[in-house]
């Protein structure tokens, strides 16, 4: 498949919200969409079959983790992520930069890249923009991400302004190097907009990233504690600078209410560990809001987690059984709860696409933001 | 369903080996058969659907564990094990005695029962023959087991002879109490033959257990380190005393070679944690013998764990991917490997039944005992 077939088409709009189709070498992704997180090439305890039944269309894997284990050479020898993992649809790989700086407190950033101690064997490793592009090419993902220097938008101290500007500008220089190094024609490479909590920097970053020549873009450093209204503003100014015909991905977000807010601003793609992490802790997303299975009231509740849900878990298992599995440390509990929570997120995306097509997105957004948390 | 429908029919024999059908309130079980172990009402990480596809017909749960968590009242309120767990087929529950004495080093056995400290809350608990029958009735299992005092057959020191005899005789007195207390007509209650490593005691125990009036029997205290030839002798003498028309269950056994040896002696039912425990440690049973996924030679092996296997794991996943998941601590690894190993055991049972019907069981036994371990 050539680069020409890596298109993105918007088929309907409702305000700034839009629905469309993102084409990749391993199939199309309807947008807006949510990517379940499969750090090591597997969503915790959940099989590719189950993800497909739950409505997943694209998964996210972590470049850095796969580089450490099993190493991209083994993934490549087994046919890339699609061959290695059994998930035959599209994959997005992150750049690893965010993981590295959050996993290692000794990460050191300089113009060359990020140097850190591997949590696997303690040895020093360096991620460079070019190296990260090469690893993602070997992994065979459908969407690769540039290496960026992430500064959370929650940082808003005046004293940090220089640091935020420096990181934003370095991210741009790294983006240029990444763009030059990227040769895999059947793989998207997304640029990443940074700029911390500054609208000015976000606007500059978006404009400059666009000028490098990327055809897909992400918002970085958001969903890390900033107020939702502030995030809305930062996303909106970047969108003013980004080409309307390019896909936009908000990295790492978030709660259902966060997602519908961002969709209303024209975001197309999301990923987050929240549905699977909450699942393992017995917190379920339902049509009535959050359900906390640890509450004793569910101990003998012989009803589905969410009677309005069409997932494989709700069709067969009760709150009482899920609660029992989770309390007993049984792996099946996290698995069944993950299937449910992922279905909630993926169904929300289905509903969002349908609502946008029908010009009814505002009503869906209001419904979801009103759910008790 | 009344007690009259709880029948067992032998439909074919090949030497002492036999194949037949065990009828329960939740359906029939073809014998010989293997019961996957679902301690807390779930096989680690594996769903009822997957167990059904793998060919499971009956599962085993641990009475003691379910009594501690979630408690039999909750299971009963959710429709018994079949309603609570989503496995709608037959369940066997053990008595808990073996777990208690192996989990708690402070277990004290007297004529009344077993007193021990709960590993959940540290409080003292007592299991009595009558109490254990009542818990299993509340759990709604299809086959219940009497409380027994287990003395491993590996114990063969002359100084222990008195202790073994005392435990064997106490097991008989408890069996009488259990039989009297058992009122659930749609549930089997199996007596348990003990006797340590003594043929004399095993014969006496089998004869006396039969005389109490049980219609199903188990061998206890075997598969705990005794030589296979010794085990064969102990099983054989008990079978001389047990009614030919009653089902026979060898508790806790074992490796594939152990199973075919026991089937050759006329055993009908098995359970063992080995296939699932081995799976979680990356040891797979295959048509060529044991496959140890931790060996580096499998790191880039893009082939099915067992190319001759018809399980859901071998149909879709490679040795390299399974090895990666297990090394990365991903729950999906243990799950996929468990599905494979259980399919190996269940297919072995299918092959055993077919071989017995065809008068070819000796050849299957020789094939399996010759596999490298």
Walk me through this protein's architecture:
2 copies of one chain form a homodimer. Chain A is of the alpha/beta class. Chain A has 2 domains: 3-31 and 62-272, TIM Barrel; 273-362, no CATH class. The first copy, chain A, is 42% helix and 17% strand. Chain A has helices spanning 48-53, 63-68, 72-77, 80-85, 97-103, 129-139, 161-181, 199-212, 228-241, 256-264, 274-280, 312-316, 319-327, 331-357, 361-369, and strands at residues 8-14, 17-24, 27-31, 33-35, 59-61, 91-93, 108-109, 114-117, 124-127, 143-145, 188-193, 217-219, 248-250, 269-271, 283-286, 289-292. In chain A, the strands form 4 sheets. The first copy, chain A, has an 8-stranded parallel β-sheet with strand order 4-14-13-12-11-10-6-5. Chain A has a 3-stranded antiparallel β-sheet with strand order 1-2-3. In chain A, helix 9 links the parallel strand 12 and strand 13. The mean pLDDT of chain A is 94. Chain A binds chain B through residues 40-49, 65, 69-70, 73-74, 77-79, 83-86, 299-300, 302, 316-318, 320-321, 323-325, 327-328, 330-336, and chain B through 40-49, 65, 69-70, 73-74, 77-79, 83-86, 299-300, 302, 316-318, 320-321, 323-325, 327-328, 330-336.
Number of domains of chain A: 2
The CATH architecture of the largest domain in chain A comes to: Alpha-Beta Barrel
Strand arrangement, largest sheet of chain A?
4-14-13-12-11-10-6-5
CATH topological fold name of the largest domain in chain A: TIM Barrel
Give the structural class of chain A: alpha/beta
Mean model confidence by pLDDT of chain A: 94
> Strand fraction band of chain A?
15-25%
| Number of E-state strands of chain A | 16
